[in-house]
Amino acid sequence: MGGIKVMADYFAQAATRHLHDAQVLCDLQRWDNAVYLAGYVVECTLKALVEIYKGKKQTRDYGHNLNKLQESALTELRLVSPKAATRLPKTTGTVLEKNHPGRRYAQSNLWTQSEAEKAVNRAREIHKEIIPRLVLDGLIPSEALLS
């Protein structure tokens, strides 16, 4: 009989896994679920950054609020790497800034192909700007890049 596995928050690897799955869903024209997972890519990516610079407890304080997470992550990034902070794409202008994670309960066919593709692409840009940099800086293990 196996024991219960304790789940630790591992935001970086979760972000990478969600990004892979969001792309698969987009490829399968499952727009709503692609958008839903793209939101988690952004959330987990930003929480990975916040966790490193502010601590694990701080990540819980934000819940699923992407706007607050984004503000905090940008503040931390400006202190550590002002150049990186200016390159970090924001969720503004995409459906990612709307109703995360409440969209999981939304009606089907809420998001269009264009909206879903834009959301997944923006999530990829945010992930790409943060997670590999954290690996290269030795702040998180390279397993964070595995989905």
Automatic annotation (TrEMBL):
Residues 12-126 form the HEPN domain. SUPFAM superfamilies: Nucleotidyltransferase substrate binding subunit/domain. Gene3D superfamilies: Nucleotidyltransferases domain 2. It holds the Pfam family HEPN. This is HEPN domain-containing protein. It comes from Heliophilum fasciatum.
